[in-house]
Amino acid sequence: MPADAIATDVAPQEIRLADYTPPPFLIDTVDLRFDLDEAATTVVASLSLRRNPAAPIDAALHLDGEALTLLRLARDGTPLTEADYHIVKSGLVIPDMPDACTLQIETRIAPADNSELSGLYVSGGNYFTQCEAQGFRRITYFPDRPDVMSRYTTTIISACPVMLSNGNPGPISDLGDHRRSVTWTDPHPKPCYLFALVAGDLVSVKDHFTTRSGRPVELGVYVRRGDEDRCAHAMHSLKTSMRWDEDVFGLEYDLDVFNIAAVSDFNMGAMENKGLNVFNTKYVLARPETATDTDYQGIETVIAHEYFHNWTGNRVTCRDWFQLSLKEGLTVYRDQEFSADQGSRSVKRIGDVRGLRAAQFREDAGPLAHPVQPASYMAIDNFYTATVYNKGAEVIRMMATIIGRPAFRRGMDLYFARHDNQAVTIDDFVQAMQDASGVDLQDFKLWYHQAGTPEISVEDSYDTATKRYTLTIRQTTKPTPGQPDKSPQVIPVAMGLLDGNGQQLTTSLQGDPEPVAGTRILLATQTENSFEFTDVASPPVPSLLRDFSAPVKLSGLTPDRLRFLAAHDSDPFVRWESGQQFAASVLLDMVAAIQAGREPVTDPALIEAMASILDQEAAFAAEALALPGEASLADKMAIVDVDAIHTARDAARAAIGQALSRPLRALYDKLTDSGGYTMDGAAIGRRSLRNACLSYLVAGGDAQAVPLAKAQFDAGGNMTDVLTALAILSGEDCLQRVQALDAFYQAWRGDPLVLDKWFAIQALSPLPATAQSVQELKNHPDFDLRNPNRIRALVSSFGANQVRFHDRSGAGYSLYADTIVQLDPTNSQVAARMVSPLGQWRRFDTARQTLMQAELQRILDLPGLSRNTFEMASKSIA
Ligand code: B3K
Ligand code: ZN
Questions:
Q1: 668 and 702, same domain (yes or no)
Q2: Measured between alpha carbons, how far is 433 from 428 in angstroms, rounded to an integer?
Q3: Judgement on whether residues 634 and 705 belong to the same structural domain of the protein
Q4: Are 143 and 64 in contact (CB under 8 A)?
Q5: What pLDDT is stored for residue 338 in this prediction?
Q6: Which of 44, 269, 696, 705 could form a disulfide with 33, with the two C-beta atoms 3.0–4.6 Å apart?
Q7: 309: pLDDT strictly greater than 50
């Protein structure tokens, strides 16, 4: 039973932002001593405490604790007896406390039994910690809240060759009997969620970085023996990130060492512990033969993200967990900007918007919708969401757009000047931006408190006599749970006007003395805003939401205007977006035809539009050639018809593949890498376009296409090409599919990260037998319910396979819910995070609704269900 199991008759309490009070005690220093043992590690914590002058006097001391055995408790050297303290469900309470004292706490923990992967645990025989959000309480009794910031020293005693913690290391002393000890000192005060310890038989790849003010920093990437040859990209990304943060934000690293340790059992992507980042191996290890271009880009982004947290998160941290987006939204914004600077900015933006829509817009439209700053939660681990991260990043981006880049940079400087070494709030951040820019951001802050995606529609008119053009923007936001009535948001709409030839016009706006030659920002602040443009020579076409200037849904553009913008706009995002919207309108017409019992016919205009993309810049062309995905089409339907969507999209892909088979094949051949493999943006773009061609050729049914895919697979080389070929084949019911899957397994069965891809590809196959094969793969000897990466590869991927997950038989739902039920007792964080696809039930037909609700109920009925999963399932079924 998980440590945080709930009694089934009492629903867990919501924790509310409104109830925040300052901590009664502060802890200036924390001295930790770990005597490592897999079955019984002892932890001695010496805490120097004092009453917080900002808190009520006489409050008792409450220390959080979970899954701990208390061995000894002493105050200022005197042991406390059981009359002096109480052990309670959530930890330990000492009622009578002096104003200041040293508390010494000795606890025992069992890292080898820690399947939750929170606190100190063992993976592959090595020790790792994960403390955010509330794992430190599984190491020792402590006020486990981010507004208690302390200076830490950490002594590790063990037989492990490598022993790492936060800060700078001291010398290693030999204790005899194969045991050694080392003490790490972290000079920077930090909350306990940033504590980390790593120990084991690891090897390191080392490098150096000198900060611009001359501090030499030793960099280390620690991995399992044999993985040393896969660290170069991670190290390169780290150094690039360090330089970028100096150049763009003036932020330098502040310790003598920066270490990254990779672990294959990890609940999420990575963790920004001070000076010792812990990473999922997925975001460290890469060689061209094992990692795809997407993997390489993921590593670059995540390394940057965690590094950037050193300032946005660590030096300035969150007062409480309701402020999570203070560090996450801001740091995602920073990693997005970093990655945009490394390759094609517009292609990066397109990818980010795709991700935002797939995860965050869907979250906003479902039962788990919540604001970027939630007002309450049951389990904070459930709030590491696309809304807090990605919508949070969009909110930061909008602020930068509204106040302008130079003011945004001044605002960042002011934020650090005011709040270095503090635990602060989102309001503090916005205040710094407001003070640095002189722009009133108070109304804008509604973005933090109001859930839901605003929908904007536009209406325009042109008066030939006065040469005036009027653009009216209307906005509404649908109700979300707990927020039935919505107010208008402050929405920056980046826009321009095109003349009939597609030329961008200089715009003059009524009330604004400055004509603008390029993109202009309109602020929509009310339910309805009208903007009057003067001196417009002829009826223009508006190009709206350039670079996706706000996280909103824009509708109401006619197919003709969409095609015009796709062909002519100067903004690459709008070109891509308009092409996608046009394709979606064609596909939804085909869905309607299928529902009416007619043959779906692909509009020749779509084929023509696709043909015109082929000769564009490769990376952009690959994005533009991809039809909107099945899930994104589903988002546009009142009641999702998974089968009709699948059939329609397949039909369109076949029609395009057939009609354009010659140019697609010619382009495929032209793009075939002549030289060796490189990892630059242009080469990634070429591979991506070439693979898009291959995918259409197979969809078109040409007899040569499947053998071509098989040949690409057999040629080996880089994983991007091999895996795309395998994914294409896995969607075809043919002998080559079986051969390729088998060959891939034989080649990579010893490599966990690559084997994850083998599981994922099968789970994502559109073939009708997929649910059955996922069921079989759950019994495969290489499937392991203790490894989050493997669960995500097989089962979470399957949850994203719309047509097969939602099979009308309900087989997909039930195997998915089975996994949650099996996983909850051992890893409740990962189990809980899997619930959301079942929460989409309202969008389906009544038969599917009933099946999905029954699975949610089955989860809720589980005896000893964790608090995490209870929150997700109960909110999803409501
Ligand atoms: N801050 C961590 C996420 C921690 C998740 C805890 N359940 C990684 C990141 O966002 O950088
Ligand atoms: Zn983060």
A1: yes
A2: 9
A3: no
A4: yes
A5: 98
A6: 44
A7: yes
Q: For ligand 1, what atom is nearest to the CA of residue 328?
A: 10
Mutate which of 132, 267, 326, 866 for ligand 1? The one with the most ligand atoms within 8 Å of its CB, which is 132
If you measure from the C-alpha of residue 260 to the centroid of ligand 1, how many angstroms do you get, rounded to a whole number?
15
pLDDT per residue over 467-476, tens digit each?
999 999 999 9
Arithmetic mean of pLDDT, 681-703: 96
Atom of ligand 1 nearest to the CA of 389: 10
* Confidence check: pLDDT of 9 > 90: no
Residue 567 structural domain: 560-658
Amino acid code (one letter) for 860: L
- Is 152 strand, coil or helix? strand
pLDDT at residue number 717: 86
Bridge partners of residue 507, in order along the sequence:
516
Residue 16 sits in the same domain as residue 97: yes
Confidence (pLDDT) at 479: 98
Claim to verify: residue 19 and residue 161 sit in the same structural domain = yes
Q: Is any atom of ligand 1 closer than 6 Å to the C-beta of 603?
A: no
- pLDDT tens string 744-770: 999 999 999 999 999 999 999 999 999
271 Cα–ligand 1 center, Å: 5
Q: What is the pLDDT of residues 423-447, one digit of tens each?
A: 999 999 999 999 999 999 999 999 9
d(CA 487, CA 108) in angstroms, rounded, equals 52
How many A from CA of 842 to the centre of ligand 1? 30
Residue with the smallest CA separation from ligand 1 atom 2 is: 271
Q: How confident is the model at residue 5 (pLDDT cuts 50, 70, 90)?
A: low
Task: Please state, in angstroms and rounded to a whole number, the distance separating the CA atoms of residues 383 and 403.
Answer: 29
Residue the block writes with tokens 């990818």:
351
DSSP codes of every residue in 40-105: -EEEEEEEEEEE-TTS-TTPPEEEE-SS-EEEEEEETTEEPPTTT-EEETTEEEE----SEEEEEE
Residue type, 349: R
pLDDT of 8 above 80: no
Return the pLDDT at 692.
Answer: 98
Same domain, residue pair 135 and 196: yes
pTM of this prediction?
Answer: 0.98
Name the domain boundary from 155, 177, 200.
200
Tell me: do 335 and 391 sit in the same domain.
yes
Task: Pick from 268, 277, 325 the residue to mutate for probing ligand 1's pocket: most ligand atoms within 8 Å of its CB.
Answer: 268
Closest residue by Cα to atom 10, ligand 1, is 328
Q: If you measure from the C-alpha of residue 329 to the centroid of ligand 2, how many angstroms do you get, rounded to a whole number?
A: 8
Q: Which of 735, 762, 786 is the last residue of a domain?
A: 735
Residue 332 has pLDDT above 90, yes or no: yes
Dump pLDDT digits (tens) for 335-361: 999 999 999 999 999 999 999 999 999
How many helices and strands, by DSSP H and E, does the chain display? Answer: 30, 32
Q: Is 122 helix (H, G, I), strand (E, B) or coil?
A: strand
130 forms bridges with which residues in the sheet?
119
- CATH number of the domain that residue 533 is part of: 2.60.40.1840
CATH of the domain at 159: 2.60.40.1730
Q: Does residue 223 form part of some domain?
A: no
Whether residue 58 is predicted with pLDDT greater than 50 in this model: the reply is yes
Out of 130, 272, 301, mutate this one to test ligand 1's pocket (max ligand atoms within 8 Å of CB): namely 272
Q: Compute the distance between CA of residue 828 and CA of residue 870 in angstroms, rounded to an integer.
A: 10
**747-753 contact pairs (CB < 8 A, 24+):** 748/290, 749/782, 751/290, 752/264, 752/281, 752/787, 752/789, 752/790, 753/264, 753/281, 753/282, 753/285, 753/290, 753/291, 753/789
Same domain, 679 and 808: no
User: Which residue from 436, 552, 590, 564 is spatially nearest to 497, judged by alpha carbons?
Assistant: 564
What's the chain's average pLDDT?
97
C-alpha closest to that of 456 among 539, 373, 523 = 523
Whether 116 lines ligand 1, by a CB cut-off of 6 Å, is: no
| 542 shares its domain with 682 | no
Q: Which residues are catalytic?
A: 306
